[in-house]
Amino acid sequence: MNSLSILLLITGYFSLLIIISYLTSKDDSNDVFFKAKRQSPWYVVAFGMVGASLSGVTFISVPGWIDGSQFSYFQVVLGYMIGYVVVAFVLMPIYYQSNITSIYEYLEKRFGVVSHKTGAFFFFISRVLGAAFRLFLVAIVLQRFVFDAWDIPFEITVIISILLIWIYTNKGGIKTIVWTDTLQTLFMILAVILSIYFINKNMGWSFSEFLISDELKEYSKIWVTDSFLERSYFLKSFLGGVFITICMTGLDQDMMQKNLTCKSLGDAQKNMISFSIVLVVVTFLFMLLGALLFIYAKKHHIEVPLMDGSPKTDLLFPEIALNSGLGITLAITFMLGLIAAAYSSADSALTSLTTSFCVDFLSIEKKPQERQKRIRKNTHIAMSIVLVITIIIFKHILSRNVIDSLLTVASYTYGPLLGLFAFGIFTKHQLRDKYVWIIAVIAVILTSIIGNIPPENLGGYVVGYELLPLNGLITFLGLLCIKKSNKHQKLPL
């Protein structure tokens, strides 16, 4: 599939998204942009959230990770399911009861302004980095397989990618995204299913023959139970998955903003539980695809593509789909799936960053009514520029597998949110609000120090995803040190 064909495909795809945007954004109000007037059908939100949660990171990076980690990531995915139950039945009732636009408004009602700003700040950092990770992947694929042929710099590729998102989210915001994510999830799931089908067909296998093949057994180890010292030990991965979900979904404005567009708490809970089941199944399909890619590459002597002189397993899927002669159908399927996966998470990230910055930092609801829409639109442009700059920086500093990097960064940035919300929900204490940001910063620093201790200094223990709950625990204990005495306390919301 040549670069011109890919570009025409992208153009057609975004034309479709812009049509959906036009149909869903006739009401250009802030209430629609931020909350979709809380009229979204729960089943539409649930299906669309699958694509937003998986993103381009799952689409490319999970298959690319199989050679190094086999199926051990599935231990983390199983933990996700428990995390979604906690989000549905612990956090969602609080958000709906509080009737908030940004979930970090809860922290102000519970503790005060500084707690609110601290929570919003850590979300802002987390989501900028997370969205940049996801878009970085699609940008490097577009660069390698489209724009390099025309000597267009990577920076221009990134700007075009963000500009396209800005165009179709500029008016309708979260209402548009609820519907575009549904389309994008459909394309992504079709892509992984058809990719497995076409590659198996080329290998002369049926799907069932692939599942029982000796080749698959070389890549399909799930359980890591030999030693607690290992980074991917089952209990560490499972608990890490639980807390990753609680933080990256339940304490994340990006993911919760979609849930808060549902008509009622009951609808939002149905959405969360059904979405979690579909997500586990689809993620397992991506891991099967990853194993199949490496089996196919080994059989046909396909080398892992290089990026800046180093092998980049994240590029194996696009290399096989576009350059290995498997046919135009697989190439089109891959490109549609990739674009859908990448933009279904990036568009909601841009909208949630705009929402959080307007509500949490600019207090947009306190501004004159005639200025509110202009403030939102200017913020939307500013958030686009922030994402462009961050992605360009990543090109020069990122060397690890993207999904591993993403989850590692989450361990540092979401920990203070975990500690703050846990303290608010599970204790009746009030805080000396002005010191909250200091506790949060100290927790991140201590977690970073622990995460970088060499294994030989810990008796061979390799620190993994348990850093996230540890960070939350450090924050929680730190908050105990600044709680007010009983006579100053009031009941929490």
- Major sheet: order of its strands? 1-2
Content-based structural category: mainly alpha
Low-confidence stretches: none
The rounded Rg comes to 22 Å
Strand proportion, as a percent range, falls in under 5%
Please report the total strand number as a whole number. 2
Beginning-to-end CA distance, first to last residue: 57 Å
Helix amount, in percent? Answer: over 70%
Biggest sheet features: 2 strands, antiparallel
Order of helices and strands: HHHHHHHHHHHHHEEHHHHHHH
Walk me through this protein's architecture.
The structure is a single chain. The protein is globular and about 70 Å long. The chain is mainly α and 493 residues long. α6 (113-145) runs antiparallel to α17 (402-413) and α17 (402-413) runs parallel beside α20 (467-480). The longest helix has 35 residues, at 265-299. The chain has helices spanning 3-24, 30-35, 42-69, 73-98, 105-110, 113-145, 154-169, 174-203, 207-211, 214-217, 234-250, 253-259, 265-299, 316-323, 328-361, 369-397, 402-413, 415-426, 436-451, 467-480, and strands spanning 306-307, 310-311. The chain is built from 20 helices and two strands. Strands 1-2 form a two-stranded antiparallel ribbon.
Annotation keywords:
single chain; mainly alpha; two-stranded antiparallel sheet; 20 helices
Structure at a glance:
This protein has about 500 residues and is an all-alpha fold.
Note the topology:
Elements: H1 3-24, H2 30-35, H3 42-69, H4 73-98, H5 105-110, H6 113-145, H7 154-169, H8 174-203, H9 207-211, H10 214-217, H11 234-250, H12 253-259, H13 265-299, E1 306-307, E2 310-311, H14 316-323, H15 328-361, H16 369-397, H17 402-413, H18 415-426, H19 436-451, H20 467-480
Antiparallel strand pairs: 1-2
Helix pairs in contact: 1-7, 1-8, 1-15, 3-6, 3-8, 3-13, 3-15, 4-11, 4-13, 6-7, 6-15, 6-16, 6-17, 7-16, 8-13, 8-15, 12-15, 14-15, 15-16, 17-20, 18-20, 19-20
